[in-house]
């Protein structure tokens, strides 16, 4: 009757109460009756019987409580185990929640078309770097299609909204915009919304380079088909001839006996520093190897790089190598992309410098590894003195002048193509007078050139680079429109 009167018994498996039922016959109610005794002994015996019955009842209640406790504990442990297994099997869904949370808080980004995000750092004086770093890591944790969807729909870095408005204004006005017009589209964000704060660039090295201190040089991380040749042309116009390597800003062509160029990861810091000092060169391009995050920042150098939209960059390389016959063996973009796995997420690999043989980390269940690679790449970029974007080169003059000290910036709006004599393009794009819209007109549109399936596949193979490119673009824009970011860099 005690069992039947409790709520937990209704939800407990019947077989778990079997031991309790087996105990009941051991205590028949007939045993509780006292035997016939002389009347003089009956009060004492009746009291003893009552005490015995009470003890038996307490024992039964205690037994019931113990069994109930065991059952409850068993169910609790089982439930906890099931929940843990469920969470471990759904890392992407959890990461998706993180991204959704970060896009629904009250702090608005002035370049993001009014969208809101959560400032996770909580300290406005520290800037917004940690906030945006967390967003980028959350995106990296997603599957490629989910990450691309988040970037397109939410524009968490504010750069896609800006780019669309910029091209629209440039096309309408048929000219490059003024800085004030740029600020109308992308005003300087508050300090707690700035990806570039706190500023961790080495300003002493930048100042020494501008002052021409002997032994200092410009380290250029050259991303192929992303404005690198333009940048070398820019250096040629501002550095003495004797300070320029003969082959496209890459001094190691001479160091290696004309065998290799753009392989600075393969040279020690001591070798680079000694050879740059003895030759008098003031620029060194690293095109074919990753940036060594463990030691390259120790060089007596100022650091620069240039980005481009990842899919546009990939298609431009296919056009340059294959369509224009520069050593490529196929003109089928499907076959070419299958063979060029070295180009998948090439930006992220370049600036995170992962160990050899970790290509599998870029997709699949390696969530934490992707988050770590993204964090390393963004941390590396934040230390580069100047991060350019090919689509925005027409607007880079203020940063080039204040940070690098270069005064001739004509190369920023002049189309420079490497090995152009091998395949001349008569497309009227020798000079860019439309800024980002001009770059767009001169480039193949991936949506037009690629079929739907190939466009999706290549986009997903470059999903991490899409995230990193949006980060790089925001860095460029913040440093362009924020007045405190002048030649103190």
Instruction: Give a quick account of the main beta sheet: strands, pairing sense, barrel closure.
Output: 4 strands, parallel
Mean pLDDT reading: 81
Roughly what percent helix?
A: 40-55%
Task: Outline the low-pLDDT stretches.
Answer: 1-40, 77-124
Distance between the termini: 83 Å
What is the SS-derived class? mainly alpha
Shape by Cα distribution: elongated
Question: Would you report the number of β strands?
Answer: 6
Order of helices and strands: HHHEEHHHHHEHHHEEHHHHEHHHHH
As laid out across the biggest beta sheet, the strand order is: 4-3-5-6
Work out the strand percent.
under 5%
Radius of gyration: 35 Å
- The number of helical segments is 20
How would you characterize the overall build of this protein?
- The radius of gyration is 35 Å and the shape is elongated.
- The chain has 20 helices and 6 strands.
- Mean pLDDT is 81; it is low at 1-40 and 77-124.
- It is 48% helix and 5% strand.
- A 4-stranded parallel β-sheet has the order 4-3-5-6. A two-stranded antiparallel ribbon has the order 1-2.
- It starts with 17 loop residues before the first helix and ends in an 8-residue tail after the last helix.
- With 489 residues, it is mainly alpha-helical.
